Amino acid sequence: MKDKQFWVGSAIIAVLFLIYWVAGHPYFVTDRIVMFISIIFLSATLIFYTRAAERGEEFFLRPIPALKAVEEAVGRSTEMGRPILYVPGIQDMDQVETVAGVVVLGHVAKMTARYETSLNVPVSRSIVMKAARESCRDAYTVEGRPDMFNEDMVHYLTDDQFAYAAGVNGIMVREKPAACMYMGKFYAESLILAETGNSIGAIQIAGTASQAQIPFFVTACDYTLIGEEFFAASAYLSQKPELIGGVKGQDMIKLFVTAAIVLSTILMILFETAGVGINISDFLTIR
Amino acid sequence: MNNIKDIENIFLKIGKIDRRWIFIIIAVVVIIPLLVPIGLPIRATDTSKSVYDALENLPKGSNVLLSVEYSPSTKPENHPMTISVLRHLFRNDHKVYVTCLWPDGQFMAQDALSQVAEGEFNKVYGQDYVLLGYRPGGEAVVKGIVSNIRKLFSVDAKQTKVDEIPMMDGIKNFKDFDFLFSASAGYPGTIEWVQYASDPTGIPMSSGVTSIQVNEVMPYVQSGQMVGVLAGMPGAAEYESLIGQKGSATSGMDAQSVAHLVIVLFIVLGNISYFIDRKRSRKY
Amino acid sequence: MFWKRQVPIFIVALIGSITLFGWFIDQPNVKEFIGDDATQWFDVLASFAIILGALNLIKMQIQKVLYQKPGWQYSVIAVLGFIFAIIAGFFIKGVDDSVAEWGAHVTSDGTLFKWMFDYVFSPMSATMFSLLAFFVASASYRAFRIRNFEATLLLVSGIIIMVGRVPIGGVISSWFIMYLIVLFLGIYVNSIKKDKKVTFIFVAVGLSLVTIFGTIMGWPIDQPGIFYLPSIQEWIYYYPNVAGARAIMIGIGLGIFATSIRYILGIERSYIGE
C-alpha cells in the first residue's frame, strides 16, 4: 500500500464503473466484459510499476546482448570510418513495431551523434520518413551536435516491398556500412537484407515482432531482439525509470497470463472429463 | 594417413566455399527438373485435405468469398492455389465473390478469373462470379465487409454499380457468405480475416499462404479458427492433386524436392567440415 | 514546444483511448469512427504523404546524378522510371476511352500502365523474391551446425521439415529412416565404447531387427508412421512448432499491448523525439 494515490484512484474508478453497471450500463457491450476488465487490470498493473519506478524503486533488468551490441556496433563503425545503416521496417506508423523502430532509431542517432559517425536511414513510407527525421533531429540536438544532422540521412526509397529491398541492398553493396540494424516490421525481404548485410561483413542487429521473420534474422544476424525484447529496447537504451517500470509491469502481466492459462487448462480438463465447473472456453471467447 | 588428411582438406575447402558457388548449384538443380520433370508422386497432407473437404462439403450454389492478397512476387506460390480453388468452386457451381486487400491482388485475381471462369468454365460475370476489386485500408476493409459490404463496394472492379449486379442481391455483409478463402502473402491477409471477420461472425474460412507464413498461421488452424491451410507451393500442388487437375505447382514440386535435397547435402558437408575444423583446432 | 510536444501527446491519448475503449461501446457513431473513419484518416494522410516521399526520392536521385556520386548511373534509370510511371499512370493510356476509361486503365489489358505492370514490375518483383531461394540455401549452409544439443535438435528437425515437406520425402520409406537411425546410433556407440567389434555387433543386430520386424509385420512405405518423414514433419509443424509459435505470439501480443498503453498514457514519448 505504498502508493496511496494509485489505490485511491483505482478505487474511485472501480466504484464509478460499479455505479454505471448497476444503472443498467447503457451502450456497453456486455459480451466483452471479460476483455474490458482484463484491459483495465493489466493497464493498472503497468501504471503501478511505472509509478513505483518513478518513486525510485529499483528493478533488475536481465542484460540483453543485442542491446549491449548496439553501442559496440556504433563504436566499430566509427573506428572503421564507415556509416551505419538503420532500416525501420517496411510498414507505416500505424504498426506498433514501426513506432518502436523509430524510438530505437532515436537512441541510435544519439550514439552516432556522440561518436560522430554517419547514419543512413532508408525508409519505405513517407510518414515514417517524417517521424524518423524528427527523431534524429532531436537526438542530434540533445547531444549538442545539430550541425551534424542532415535531413537527407533519412530518405525515402519506395513503398514497394521488394523494390525497397533492392534499394537497401544497393546501398549496402555500394557504401559497405560497418553495421546494419533492422528494427521494425518485416516480411519476406528480411533474409534478403540480412544475407546481403552478412556478405559485406557488417555487424548486424535485428529487432522484430514479425514472428515468421525471427528465424531468418536469428540465422543471418549477429544479434536479434525477439518480440517483446524489441519493445523493451527503448527502456534499456534510455534507462528512464518510468520505462523500466513498464518493462517490470509487462513481466508481471506475463505472470498473470501464464497463471490464467494454467488455471483455464485445469478448469477445462475438469469440465470436459468430469463435467465439473464451467466451460471456461465459452467464458473467455470474445465475439 | 596422408590420404585421410587430403580428404579432410577437401572437406575443409568445401566448408569455406564461396556462396556464389552455392547459388550456381541451386540454380542448376532448380532448372534441370523444370526442363526434365521427374514426376514424383504427391501425397496430400491433412491440412490440405481439410481445405478440400470443407469446400467439397459446401451445399451447391453457396456464396464463397475469395480474397486475393498477394503480388507478382509470390505468384508461383499463391496463384496455383487461387486457380485450383476457383476450379473447385466453379466445378461445384458455387457463386464466387472476389475481393482484394492488396492493390496488385486485383491484377492477380483478374488473371485467374479470365483463365478459369472465362476460359475453362464459361461462367457468366455478375451471375456466377464478380470481381469487387481492391479497396485501400487493410483491416478497415475487412471490418467494412463484416459490417456493410455495400458501403465499401458501391461499384465493382469494372465500375459497374453493385446494385445492378444480379448475384449481389441479398449480399449485405460478411454473414451472407458461406465460406471465405484467403490467398495470402502477408499483411493485410489471413490473420486479419481470422481476427476481424471469421472468428467474430463464425463464418468458416480457410487460407492458402506462402511457406514463410505457415508458422504464423498454424496456431489458428490447430485451434479450429481456420479450416486447414494450403502451405506454400507444396500445399498448392497437393490441392491440384486433390481436385485431379495438375498445374504449375505440381510441375514446380520436382524442382523444389531436388533443391531441398541439395540444401540438406550442403548442410551435411558444412557440418563435416565444421567437425574437422574443430578437431584440428582442439589438437593445437 | 506546445505544438510539438503536448498537442501530439494529447492526440495520441485521445484517439488511442477512443479506439481502445470504443470497442466496448455499442453506439453507431463510435463504432463507425473506430471501424472505418480512424483507419481511413490514416490512409488519407499516408496517401498525401507519398508526395513528400516521391519528392525526396527524386531530389536524392537527381543530386546523385548531378554530383556524379558512386552508382549515379542507376539514379538515371530511377529518374527515368519515375517519369515513365507518371506518364503511364496520368497522361498516356495507350488505348481509347471505349476500351478503358481513366482509372480503370491501370488494370485493363492493352494499356501502357498494364504493360508496365506485366512486363517490368512483375518480373522484377519475382526476381527479388526468388533471391530468397539462394539466400535460404547459403544461410542454412552457414548456420545449421551441430554446436550443441539445441543446435542438433534444430538441424535434425530442419532437415525433416525440408525433406518431408516435398514429394521426395514421401518416397523415402520408414525402413530407410530406421536403417539410418541404426547407423547413427552405431556412430554414437563407437564414440563411447571405441571398440569396432561392439559397434559392428550393435549395427548388425539393429539392421537385422529392423529387417526381421519389417518383413514379419509387412510394413508398407509409410509404416510405422513415426519413422515416415511426411508424418514426422506434419507432427513437428502441428505440435512443437505451434507450441513455440503460441508462446512467441503471446509475448509479442503483451509487448504490443504494453507499448500501446505506454503511448496512450504518455509514458513513452520518444516517438516525437523526446
- In the predicted model, the low-confidence regions of chain C spanning at least 5 consecutive residues are none
Helix tally of chain B?
11
Known CATH architecture of the largest domain in chain B: 3-Layer(aba) Sandwich
CATH class categorisation of the largest domain in chain B: Alpha Beta
Nearest-integer average pLDDT of chain B: 92
Assembly state of the chains shown: heterotrimer
For the record, what is the CATH homologous superfamily label of the largest domain in chain B? MTH777-like
CATH fold-level label of the largest domain in chain B: Rossmann fold
End-to-end separation of chain B in angstroms reads: 18 Å
Total strands of chain C:
0
Largest pleated sheet of chain C? none
Determine the most extensive contact between two protein chains. Answer: A-C, 76 and 60 residues
Radius of gyration of chain B: 23 Å
Structural class of chain C: mainly alpha
Low-confidence segments of chain B, given as residue ranges, are none
Q: Total strand count of chain B, please? A: 6
Succession of helices and strands of chain B: HHHEHEHEHHEHEHEHH
Can you offer a commentary on this structure?
The complex is a heterotrimer of chains A (287), B (284) and C (274). In chain A, 62% of the residues lie in helices and 9% in strands. Chain A has eleven helices and six strands. The longest helix of chain A is centred in the C-terminal third of the chain and has 34 residues, at 241-274. Chain A is elongated and about 65 Å long. Helix content of chain B is 56%, strand content 12%. Chain B folds into two domains: 2-36 and 253-283, no CATH class; 46-246, MTH777-like (Rossmann fold, 3-Layer(aba) Sandwich). By secondary structure, chain C is mainly alpha-helical. The mean pLDDT of chain C is 87. Chains in contact: A-B, A-C, B-C.
What is the secondary structure topology, with strand pairs?
The complex is a heterotrimer of chains A (287), B (284) and C (274).
Chain A: H1 4-22, H2 33-54, H3 65-80, E1 84-87, H4 96-115, E2 119-123, H5 126-142, E3 154-156, H6 161-175, E4 179-183, H7 189-199, E5 203-208, H8 214-220, E6 223-226, H9 228-238, H10 241-274, H11 280-284
Parallel strand pairs in A: 1-2, 1-4, 2-3, 4-5, 5-6
Chain B: H1 2-15, H2 19-35, H3 46-56, E1 63-69, H4 75-91, E2 95-100, H5 103-120, E3 129-134, H6 139-147, H7 149-152, E4 179-184, H8 190-201, E5 205-209, H9 214-222, E6 229-231, H10 232-243, H11 248-283
Parallel strand pairs in B: 1-2, 1-4, 2-3, 4-5, 5-6
Helix pairs in contact in B: 1-11, 2-11, 4-5, 4-10, 6-8, 10-11
Chain C: H1 6-21, H2 28-66, H3 72-91, H4 112-143, H5 149-164, H6 167-170, H7 174-193, H8 196-217, H9 229-238, H10 240-264
